[in-house]
């Protein structure tokens, strides 16, 4: 594979991940989710009580938007290595629905994540991620 082919693959992969972050997670465009995620998608780091597949990812996205209707991310940077994209971002939102057993509080939250997603044939096929959910729980539980 030539250097230009690798660069092209990386740029396409970054654009797919950016669309997922901005349009699906940030705007709730679930029709686009279905287009961007491969049917055999595998999440190597699923959240507790979730499945490591496409249905599990969609459930998580809908749960987050249900609890935080203004849920969105600020992407700080992305780095691509071929078909794998690493993204560092901060999610923001206002809790207007129950989340992790915590009643709606109206609190504004933010938490950081780093994730890696693989994009093949224009679709997200794999995910690995780490999120600072402890910080999120602290913000929601604060008196």
TrEMBL record:
SUPFAM superfamilies named in the record: NTF2-like (SSF54427)
Pfam families from the UniProt entry: SnoaL (PF07366)
Superkingdom classification of source: Bacteria
Name of the protein: Ester cyclase
Biological source species: Herminiimonas glaciei
């Amino acid at each position: 594979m030539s250097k230009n082919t690798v660069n092209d693959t990386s740029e396409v992969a970054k654009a797919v991940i950016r669309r997922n972050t901005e349009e699906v997670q940030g705007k709730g465009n679930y029709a686009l989710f279905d287009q961007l995620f491969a049917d055999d998608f595998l999440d190597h780091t699923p959240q507790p009580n979730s499945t490591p597949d496409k249905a599990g990812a969609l459930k998580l996205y809908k749960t987050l938007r249900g609890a935080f209707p203004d849920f969105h991310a600020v992407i700080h940077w992305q780095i691509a290595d071929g078909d794998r994209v690493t993204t560092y971002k901060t999610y923001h939102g206002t809790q207007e629905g129950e989340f992790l057993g915590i009643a709606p509080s109206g609190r504004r939250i933010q938490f950081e994540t780093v994730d890696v997603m693989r994009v093949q044939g224009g679709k997200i096929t794999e995910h690995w991620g780490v999120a600072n959910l402890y910080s999120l729980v602290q913000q929601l539980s604060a008196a």
